Amino acid sequence: REVISPSNGASASAKPSTDPSAVQADVLQNLEYVVGAPSSKIPNGLDASSVYRGVAASVREHLIDAFNRTQDYWSEKDPKFVYYLSAEFLMGRSLMNAVQNLELTDTYSQAVKQLGYDLETLRDAEQNAALGNGGLGRLAACFIDSMATLNLPGWGYGIRYKYGMFKQAIDEKGYQQELPDIWLSNGNPWEIPRPDITFKIGFYGSVDNFKWSPGETVLAKAYDNPIPGFKTPTVGNLRLWEALPVAEFDLSAFNEGKYDKAVEERRKAEDISAVLYPNDATEYGKELRLKQQFFFVSASLQDAVARFKAKHGDNWQLLPEKAVFQMNDTHPTIAVAELMRLLIDEQSLDWDTAWGITQKTLAFTNHTVMPEALEKWPVKVLGKLLPRHMEIIDKIDQIWKDSLKEKVLAQVEEMHKKNPPKPKAAKPLKKEVPLAAKAEAGEPAEDEDEEEEEEDPVEAALNKYGIITENPWEKGVKLVNMAYLAVVGSKAVNGVAAIHSDIIKRTIFKDFYELAPHKFQNKTNGVTPRRWLAWCNPGLAALITETLGTDTWPNDLNLLTGLRKHADDKEFQKKWRAIKHENKAKLAAKIKARTGVDLPTDPLYDIQIKRIHEYKRQYMNILSIIYRYHQLKTASPEERKKFVPRVTIFGGKAASAYYMAKKIVRLINRVGMVVNNDPDVKDLLKVVFVPDYNVDWAEALIPAAELCQQISTAGTEASGTSNMKFQMNGCLIIGTMDGANIEIAEEVGKENLFIFGMDESEVPAWRESKRAEWKDYDPRFVKAIEMVRDGTFGDKEYFQDLADSVYDMKKGNDWFLVAPDFADYLRAQEEVDKVYLDQDEWTRRSILYTAGSGFFSSDRTIKQYADEIWDVVPVPVPSS
Ligand code: 475
To answer: Whose Cα sits closest to atom 10 in ligand 1?
Structure first.
């Protein structure tokens, strides 16, 4: 049976050409009719930004063509779809990625060359789409790239924030300044507005006999962002929602002269999709944030459910076979209640049927064990904003607790047998010490140890499993634990690296794991090797292709193991090193242009780029640099010659309210100002803080890095993903046995990393018993702290409490173990210097890193999600 779909016929003739001169004509057309440039100015009188927009509009035609074919085909085949629900997608720039993924780089390079431009310059005219904070948001972006490349039917769903991640500037004193990111100011050629696809989203109001009458309603409008796969005609979709008022404008208010009131509705609605909250791994308890979460979850579920209904009518039992929703951390977990509401209230299913379907359709990923990052909404807030959902959550909690009663009773009896009850009951709630949360508020971190009231042990045990629990910090205040809601409502729960998946089973989800061990899985993170190796490091990519004799490795990254046999080859090493050197020179030029700092290109390039956080320990890194500076200053000219020159680079944003993180940013900058201008150390040490670290910076920094810092306190970094990007680009790791570092060490050989510090298993004991009386400060640590205190880097007063935080146990508490790990860190740093002197050995290791990075392709990760959680299979789109 031959099926001729309308798109086949229609697009065959409309399909854009890939011949350079035809592409050039197309670019000119777009410059004239999309950008609106007068033909007299085309091409020579135009600025790069205009030409970029013309080129982007032309590339967009190719994307849309393949996008339509893909989506039509999938719609016709009706396979099971995965929907990736995420409050963040940190996409970065699209032009080069699109051109490369579509395999049109040469075509477009030639076409724009003939017009007098080069593609590289145009690429810089694009604004970064920074709709994410850090690791979690960038992971979502890598995942949708892999989904498209693997031909997996699936969409990403999120929010089209008007203002993305704040832009960071560093003022002349070294302070972080936050500026708005007006990323849409030049328009966005990569999106397709869908004014016809809108859903109503309700808030507030009341519930009468299970019927919800919202008190406020806004519209969610869809924008589709085509996501090209590589070496496949498949183009996936990222659908982002914008919030709009239901009524455009209140004309009668306007006519009465009430201008503010006339536009009030619009402003209130637009607020919902206005800003991305600049918080990484911290909960932010604002009603507007919950509003955002419900807004995009509801729109996405309504959209997917409507699509299902159009095909399958009321055959709801089929839903879990046609759709799966992956919840990216706790932000979208209101989906559990919203899917229940849609099935019960709108589709008239009974509770049990709806619950069975929900539990088979949702899955949940946890990304952090920081207790303050696990969202808990006050019942009062959630109940006011979403009264019907609160009712549903209440019932889920009740049924859940009832189902546990027998088990809990047995447990309590067992406990009593072993341990007859003393007059005072055991503490019902183990108090974690979420110090970073307190530090964020600028409060001193101190243990609180109030007396707990006696509590019925059964009640207490049930409370600890409860989705609705009492706030341990505030008596009588009830909270909805969103992570627990997600665990109970999902078919699968996963962590993002082996150690992390193990930790969540032992700690934050212990009781849930014991009740339903089958739900718990691991999916070690990955990154897209297209953006993070092939496109950002063309020199290395070419050498790899030449050496392996194939260019298929970006889609089959395990082929990189073929590099292993060249690791000792001196000629090959030379070529490998030359590429690194070239990347360093390019980076130095970019840093010079952006910061004015001159960097030599021969020293070891040592880089730490990630959100600024106490647990990530940028502080420990800068303390070791301070000590190095001290050593240099006190060395004789002869001794100085023995130092291995280093360029140390930092990048990362501090959450705007995170007090200590902001001090760390300032310290790094102040150290840079002193060190970089000190003739004594000259080219032996440089300290650079790149302002406004983002995806674009990462693409320049990672290929140039020789050493990267992955130095989180063991047990705190869920996975890390920059570690994988650095590894792919042949950058050595100094790090702790934490997150995915452990798995990287397995692939590369532990002896090839510079591992130091306490293990995850040793950390709790140190915190509990040794921390308070820790006196064993290494003299080098003492020296570095002294230099923070004594005004060597200025701002004497300002830095005192930063020094205290890791040193004075009455004022701080060094929760993240900077002091006890410091000596071993310096030992590892010395080892780094030693190995760097042996360039052949360094390069051998570098090659082994790249060769061992195949496992960390997000293609592998996504295949595992597809096979082990989603049950979604590839549906490749026929070529034409
Ligand atoms: C982990 N973000 C990394 C990465 O799995 C890991 C954002 C807003 C509010 C609360 N939290 C966030 C995160 O929790 C986050 O980015 N987590 C990171 O996820 C991907 O590689 O170790 O810290």
So the answer is: 281
Ligand 1 nearest-atom number relative to CA 133: 7
Q: Would you state the structure tokens that stand for residue 880, as one six-digit string?
A: 């034409």
Asked if 432 and 373 touch (Cβ cutoff 8 Å), the reply is no
Residue of 133, 136, 713 to mutate, ligand 1, most atoms within 8 A of C-beta: 136
Name the residue type at position 54: G
Do 86 and 134 touch, CB atoms closer than 8 A? no
The single residue of 289, 500, 662, 725 carrying the catalytic annotation is 725
Q: CA-to-CA distance for 403 and 598, rounded, in angstroms? A: 66
From the list 179, 55, 200, the residue with the least C-alpha distance to 117 is 55
| Residue 69 a catalytic site member | no
d(CA 95, CA 167): 21
Go through the chain and tell me how many residues it has.
880
Centre of ligand 1 to C-alpha 230, Å, is 26
**Separation of 691 CA from ligand 1 center, angstroms?**
21
CA of 136 to the centre of ligand 1 (A): 4
Q: In sequence order, what are the residues at sequence separation of 6 or more whose Cβ sits closer than 8 angstroms to the Cβ of residue 377?
A: 285, 290, 479, 480, 482
Measured from CB, residues less than 6 Å from any atom of ligand 1 are: 133-136, 139, 279-282, 329, 367-368, 373, 496, 525, 717-721, 739
**pLDDT tens digits, 364-419:** 999 999 888 889 999 999 999 999 999 999 999 999 998 888 888 888 888 888 88
Residue 41 is a catalytic residue: no
Q: Reduce the DSSP state of residue 722 to 3 states and report it.
A: helix
Rg (Cα) of the chain, in Å, rounded? 28
Dist. CA 775–CA 781, nearest whole Å: 12
Query: Domains of the chain (ranges plus CATH)?
Result: 1-77+95-120 (no CATH), 535-551+558-856 (3.40.50.2000)
Give pLDDT tens digits for 836-877.
Answer: 999 999 999 999 999 999 999 999 999 999 999 999 999 999
**Residues 25 and 115: beta-carbon distance below 8 Å:** no
- Ligand 1 atom closest to Cα of 720? 21
Distance of alpha carbon 511 from alpha carbon 634, whole angstroms: 55
Sort strands 492-495 and 520-522 into parallel, antiparallel or unpaired: parallel
Model-wide pTM > 0.90: yes
